[in-house]
Amino acid sequence: MTAILRPGAKPANPHFSSGPCAKRPGWSVAALTDALVGRSHRSKPGKAKLQQAIDLTREVLGVPADYKIGIVPASDTGAVEMAMWSMLGARGVDMIAWESFGEGWITDVQKQLKLADARIFTAPYGELPDLAAVDTKTRDVVFTWNGTTSGVRVANADWIAADREGVVICDATSAAFAQDLDWAKLDVVTFSWQKVLGGEAAHGMIVLSPRAVARLESYKPAWPLPKIFRMTKGGKLIDGIFIGETINTPSMLAVEDYLDALLWAKSVGSLKGLIARADANAAVIADWVAGSSWAAHLAKVPETRSNTSVCLVIADPDVTARGPDAVAAVAKQIVSMLEKEKVGFDFGAYRDAPAGLRIWCGATVEAADLKAFTAWLDWAFAEAKAALTKAA
Fold this sequence. Notes:
This protein is α/β, with parallel strands linked by helices.
């Protein structure tokens, strides 16, 4: 193949990890100057900071006024587990997965909660299951809006019944703040600070509809609940969780960082502005892929391609003809070379996903950095392919 010259310009910000993700443009530790360090999160100013985080989350995301928003332990994983352990078992549940995290929720339902009436709907990486076959009318539903490790998302919530009788639990951790969630169709929405807004890890968010609150107050699971999962006391919702009285001690440094990210989000147009930035970023990669001779989207249907966790596979016929080990070796070499050049960090495919690349295109990433990055991807692939050919 024709040799490609080593590019000159590098991305100003080489952080393309899918979590924790790039900090917002212009971020520095100075953003944490007002952090309430050394003070109790239960003090009056501590509670005020946590309440402000909840209020700004509602404002930026457009969460309905009658939905509850809480800050919970253990990132998005903790929030999803809290919802499943507290609510499932009241009726049959349909579990939907098309990548590793959704598969994890299925494992919990089957092997930990051991629910007898659980139907499973799955699809290979790059595809969606048949959503029309899911019973969103009479059964509970658990699904991931955006598959972080596959780059496949649901296009909308039209497949969810408006007159549903159960609750819909949505893991939206790499969708929130970048995709338009249909709140009327969702009863539990979870996400973390470390994704689209580039916040710090360990803290999760749980958003509850009135239907979800009713479930919590009317249903008691057959299994014991750890303290960090308990959202009710005496059959009533613990309202304090949803006004900043967290179950466990949060990092006030991380809270300050989240507040900074939320205020930045407002400055770029809140949800509409964030979506526009992510869409523009994903378009940079899509346009490059359209002209590439070696890269392709893992997500097969354009309408279901993520605008945040963009997953790519190596489609060069000379490489693929050598088998999966050669494909994996080339992908690994591309990542290694560009990390060494300080051009791009942490953009390899997830360990359970097909070999390839996963490039974060969320709102905190700049389109100009992605454009510069694609030139380096072409250079690295040419080098890796040449090395593969020479070794053979």
